[in-house]
From TrEMBL:
Residues 11-333 form the Cation/H+ exchanger transmembrane domain. GO terms for cellular component: Golgi membrane; plasma membrane. The keyword Ion transport applies. One of its GO terms (molecular function) is potassium:proton antiporter activity. The chain crosses the membrane at residues 27-49, 91-114, 134-156, 168-195, 238-259, 271-294. This is Sodium/hydrogen exchanger 8. One of its GO terms (biological process) is regulation of intracellular pH. The keyword Ion transport applies.
Amino acid sequence: CGCIPNLVAVVGYTMKRRHFFANLSSILLFAILGTFASSVVVGGLLYFLGSMGLSLQMPLAECLAFGALISSTDPVSTLAVFQQLNVDPKLFYIIFGESVLNDAISIVLFNTFSKFIGVNVIHAHAISYAVLDFVGVCVGSIFVGVFFGCVSSLALKHLKHLTLMHEVSLFLLFAYMPFLVAEVLELSGIVSVLFAGMLMKHYTSNNLSPTAQDIASNVFHVVAFVCELVVFLSTHSIVTLAVCLISTTATVDLGLSFFTMERGLSVPFMLWAILACLVARAVHVYPLAMLRNACLRRGRSHSQSRLSRNEQHMIWFSGLRGAIAFSLSLSFPLPFREVCT
């Protein structure tokens, strides 16, 4: 979906760096290990249930690919409530940071597992290649984002006599360019725009005039708001026009499309998938939270506090699925695309 890079770029641009990096180790723990564990658990459970005849039978690669896409969390409503209640910034930014990086990790895992679809025999060297490919894509994507973040900062710092329109246009161009370059290089454009947005917020924006900063920030938020509307409230008329104006993608029918689905709906698969998501979320949240608390206890860290049992419950409850998962399902290989959607 062409709306996704716009949403992720805004997330990176609006992120509060101090709280994010203060909880970076916890965020990486839940985002990387947690997403991988969730993908494997969901995929493994669905494959087992399918082989037992209790659900739709799909090959292992398809199950793992579905597990990867459905492991992308989007706790927008939960975070909105957190902001109203002024909860502990630690809990807020662990959930927020996990959801941000989790989207990128899910996309990379989905692309990695999708490469095995249609392969009859998976050898050990193929698995090793997949692991190296995953690491290479992550590192390369981060490098592309950091590169464009640095280039944009230097360009806007040394280019003189720019008009207001030129400043804002260049800023928005540099925000979207990492996605295009990363996709051409077969990397993750989502990861690239995330890190580019983070650097541009704290370095590039300081080289803009105050008026250009305000305009660029407002444009970012308007585009993000419209993209969320496109993803969540899409119908077949008005939103189609909006999508054409914003991106070149087809209409994304999240929510209302369920009621217009004529074929491909498997109720047992849907119910088992929901249960698998709940189980997988619990399987990775509680053990990783215990590991985090044990490491803090051993290291006697004073900069971070332990996650209480209630906070662990909140992290588990915040694993809602959203736009990224639905958008990935639209590119799921046939013949199981409609089922996974």
